Amino acid sequence: MKQFGRWLLPGLLSLAFSVFAADGGSAQPVLPKRVAVASANSQATDAGLEILAVGGNAFDAAVAVSATLGLVEPESSGLGGGAFMLLHVAHDNRDVFIDAREKAPAAATRDMYLDAQGNPNRDLAVNGPLAAGIPGMPAGLVHLASKYGRLPLSRSLAPAIRLANEGWIFSSKNESMLGFRKDVLARSPAAAKLFLPGGEVPKAGTRMRNPDYARTLQLLAKQGADGFYRGAFARKLASGVRKAGGIWSEADLADYQVVEREPIRITHRGFQLVTVPPPSSGGVALAEILNILSGYEYPAMSRTDRIHLITEAMRRAYRDRSIYLGDPDFFKVPVDLLTSPDYAAGLRASISPTHATPSVLLPGVGEGSERVETTHYSIVDSEGNLVATTQTVNLPYGNAFAVAGTGFLLNNEMDDFSVKPGVPNAFGLVGDDANAIAPGKRPLSSMTPSFLMGHNKVSAIGTPGGSRIITMVLLGLLELMDGGSAQAATDLPRYHHQYLPDVISAETGALSAVEIQGLQAKGHVVTVESRTWGNMQIVTWDQGNGSVEAGSDGRWQGVGKAATGDVPAEAAIFR
Ligand code: GLY
């Protein structure tokens, strides 16, 4: 077992943990007495717990959860998509961000989704092979396992391989999301074979098998990334995409690399937030919002004033998202400026306590609503390693296209580029040059896996939800900072503002009638939606007593699962 020796260095471990105390506390943290996994599907949570129980660390468990979610929650993520993985590596007290985001193929062009009149062709941008970026998930799994895991991939992938071969249970969520994409899936014979047996949407509770998925995972286990990105499998994938009208080449697959990037760090109310850098917009937006809020005693404000202020901060952060955010390998994103307290002070000066600022008065990029997918899981192990991963194929069931014999759908992440400046994507998000399509570029994302550390507690948090991810994570973080539990933070009703459209949208129950009237009196437009958003998954570790908690969004009751498990005996011996 590689890295096993590191378990035997409790001195090193305790040294590492002391730095978590962002609030200046110096007491030695008590290591987690249990492990915790929260994910959007119980089969995936169980896969993670199984790997932890046999002596895997949080990173091995993350491989198991990611690969299992790709199988059992194909509407949200998979081998044909990408991921952002945020790790806290306890033995050297390091936070690592693994960017396994999809990349545009080399033949991609800026205007590839515009018709002869210059209008976006939405069908091409989201349905079928032309909508797919080069997947990053398989490379991300191999990187995670080989650099940070302790177990071989053949072991950490075993639960997903077993489920694919023996059968997994189709959930109510699989079923309802498939309803939205059935017609498009039916266009791809291989996708229809996977998910529309007999041409119909399976009923929740149906046992589904996917031996092709198992074989693809076995290739990864045996050959590492080469098993997917080079050789016969890559040939099959690229030619299958091209034959159906796509533009992938074998070289696109062979050239794919994950990137490790430095996370963004923000201090707020004595907490340290560790979060995602570009090509996610989430970390920069959270930094802007929290830096703006730090100039106010907002916890003591009335709810209406607090929501007004948070909305004004959201508005400004999403405006900047539309102008400045994109792939940092292609566009110089002014991260230091946007995340600086001085910049936030300037934004704060433009906020009126009594009036909403109409978004049209904040120059930005020109608007829209959504039906979103993506998924998140959070893990803490008994050594204090943490994982927060958000992974995606973009819209439900990705581009609804599969290459025969691979076992997975491809993504439609190309729609996360700005297909045309100022024209909204599927999430109503607008963008400009920073996020224009270019060969080899990563599309801007909103995925925001994050860690919150301080006041003797550590949390890993994240959610799906397209453009709303950032504001959901924000509200979850504020609840945790206010002392809320992991479960309370996942269940909290949500509100959101994203600059354009210039509207506060709210889940039922998020705002009282008095609060809505108060916000309207300040000039806000408020819409209350009957549907719910997001699927937040949080784990927390109380460093004062070693207890852990896992919270799974109650909006998908009976599908997601937050669970704690015992520390494996061999780990306990060395504690
Ligand atoms: N595809 C959703 C996101 O990356 O933000």
Structure description:
With 575 residues, this protein is an alpha+beta fold. Helices cover 35% and strands 15% of the residues. The strands form 4 sheets. It has a 7-stranded antiparallel sheet with strand order 6-3-2-10-9-1-18, with helices on one face. Helix 14 (282-293) crosses helix 15 (303-324), helix 14 crosses helix 17 and helix 14 (282-293) crosses helix 18. The structure holds glycine. Glycine (GLY) is lined by residues 374, 392, 394, 413, 416, 445-447, 466. Glycine is lined by residues 374, 392, 394, 413, 416, 445-447, 466.
Mean model confidence by pLDDT: 92
Shape: globular
SS field, number of helical segments: 21
Distance between the termini: 18 Å
Bound molecules: glycine
Q: For the CA atoms, what is the radius of gyration?
A: 22 Å
The proportion of strand residues reads: 15-25%
Which strands sit side by side, in order, in the main sheet?
6-3-2-10-9-1-18
Task: List how many beta strands DSSP finds.
Answer: 18
Q: Largest sheet at a glance?
A: 7 strands, antiparallel
Helices and strands: which structural class? alpha+beta
Q: Helical percent range?
A: 25-40%
Low-confidence stretches: 1-25, 366-371
